[in-house]
Specification:
Length: 304
């Protein structure tokens, strides 16, 4: 990116913050977006950011944004008060910014400009950068789902499901933990990994080095995102959107899995115990069996 331009990170509510026409999208959760970390220093003429909720992820994004902005360029950052918004002013002040803070609709909105010499950017960028966690033996990054631990639902699914065979897909693959377990079976001939988070896709590429695998950055709910006539699908589907619970996400994943499977193909699904996926499973599969329930999670096997 050579000419200064305007950018947006995420999808800020339109009534809370203005986004310049033609702004370049930078969120890693929007397939096809540009990578904030790849922008040249001083290349942005302005940035509006819906800040991420996690502290390491948020400070990383703020620091990258300040690095990419030209000195004196405007920065607007907002977040719900209970998902990082109450910390924005303190964090931006720590980077050397002078602030104008307001509150509206349970959000904190901070407007500032990029100082000539921001403080502490390198440290915040390094803290939130991709890293290999020795205790997991995996590459990861703050902001990815279950980035610094094995999710208990995934662990229960790995413990419960049998060795699989044929062609399959892992919808919402994350770091690749579930995929690595699936690929332990020599009867698996191919596995498509799909995730909407660019950082997860990058981590999975490093964690799952197997010639049977393809890895794609995309929305698993899209009709063209998943191969068809699969023998199996495995997944730990998301159920939050923008921090709020959205059960329709998991239901959409279930329908996409059913559409991708051949007749007789099998879905292995892990989910939090309170999520009401049974009706959707019964709607699109001919046979549904709960195979395990423990630690607040449940495992379903569904046959098309």
């Amino acid at each position: 990116m050579t000419d200064p331009t305007f950018a947006v990170y995420g999808h800020p509510p339109a009534d809370l913050a203005e986004v310049a026409d033609g702004a370049v999208q930078l969120s890693p959760l929007v397939p096809g977006s540009a990578a904030l970390e790849d922008l040249d220093a001083g290349s942005l003429a302005g940035l509006t950011m819906l800040a991420p909720p996690g502290t390491l992820e948020r400070r990383h994004a703020l620091a990258l944004g300040l690095r990419a902005l030209a000195p004196g360029a405007p920065l607007t950052v907002l977040a719900p008060k209970d998902r990082g918004g109450s910390r924005l002013a303190r964090e931006l002040s720590g980077f050397g910014c002078r602030l104008d803070e307001s509150a509206r609709r349970h959000h904190r909105i901070v407007r500032t400009v990029r100082p000539d010499t921001p403080a502490g950017l390198d440290e915040a960028i390094a803290d939130g950068a991709p890293q290999r966690l020795a205790d997991l033996g995996l590459w990861t990054q703050a902001g990815i789902f279950s980035w610094n631990r094995i999710d208990p639902g995934t662990a229960l699914l790995i413990e419960t499901m049998p060795a699989l065979s044929g062609r399959g897909a892992d919808l919402g693959c994350g770091l690749g933990v579930l995929a690595r377990a699936v690929l332990a079976s020599p009867k698996v001939t191919g596995l498509a990994l799909i995730d909407i988070d660019r950082r997860a896709v990058a981590a999975a590429r490093r964690n799952v080095g197997d010639p049977r695998v393809t890895i794609a950055w995309g929305d698993a709910r899209a009709a063209d995102a998943v191969p068809d006539r699969l023998d199996f699908v495995v997944m730990n589907p998301p159920f939050h959107d923008g921090g709020a619970e959205d059960r329709a996400l998991g239901q959409a994943f279930i329908r996409r899995a059913a559409a991708a499977l051949r007749p007789g193909g099998t879905l292995w699904l892990t989910a939090n115990a309170h999520l009401p996926y049974e009706a959707t499973l019964a709607e699109v599969f001919r046979e549904v069996t709960q195979r395990a329930a423990a630690h607040g999670y449940k495992i379903h096997e569904a046959r098309k």
